[in-house]
């Protein structure tokens, strides 16, 4: 799905209404996710997989809980994730089987009201995640994707990196590889500027 800010709310909802057989969606940051999640929940009865690339907060988690309670696969790869939203998901999503929080910037609100980066998951999160069929997590300081998240302050600047980078995912069913790529290698050679 293209950037949400390039399509009107009505346009997005009309498109989703026509995608009745939609099972999976990869989408960038969404400014106001409830109306999109509501439309997917209402129109797409086979929907089970979602990949978000952007910011994931309590509002987003609540929208998924309310409108997509049967979601089985969720990837937040390379997203800015609020820990309370993550805890909410793990506590409440009974059908969730696969969760990817690899290369995320995990944030918690400290007692002084400031956001703090979480570098390691606590035992409570790990225990809840252990019930999932798959749980993907990477917060390595030596990982290039994790380093990019820190440099980009939690909102990945996809345009700065390889054009294939956003297509990748640790969750096999969401790893697009070259799917959706506009040009093959031959075309890229013809159009490249040296």
From TrEMBL:
What InterPro entries would the database entry show?
LRR_dom_sf
- Protein name from the UniProt record: F-box/LRR-repeat protein
């Amino acid at each position: 799905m293209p950037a949400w800010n390039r399509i009107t709310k009505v346009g997005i909802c009309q498109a989703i209404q026509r995608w009745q057989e939609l099972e999976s969606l990869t989408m960038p940051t969404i400014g106001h996710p409830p109306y999109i999640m509501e439309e997917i929940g209402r129109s797409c009865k086979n929907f089970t997989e979602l990949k978000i690339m952007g910011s994931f907060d309590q509002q987003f988690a609540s929208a998924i809980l309310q409108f997509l309670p049967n979601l089985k696969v969720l990837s937040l790869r390379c997203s800015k994730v609020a820990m309370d939203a993550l805890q909410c998901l793990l506590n409440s999503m009974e059908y969730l089987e696969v969760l990817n929080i690899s290369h995320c910037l995990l944030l918690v609100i400290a007692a002084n009201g400031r956001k703090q980066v979480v570098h390691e998951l606590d035992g409570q999160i790990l225990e809840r995640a252990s019930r999932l069929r798959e749980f993907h997590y990477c917060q390595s300081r030596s990982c290039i994707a994790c380093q990019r998240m820190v440099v980009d302050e939690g909102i990945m600047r996809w345009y700065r990196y390889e054009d294939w980078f956003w297509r990748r995912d640790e969750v096999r069913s969401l790893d697009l590889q070259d799917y959706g790529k506009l040009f093959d290698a031959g075309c890229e050679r013809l159009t490249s500027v040296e």
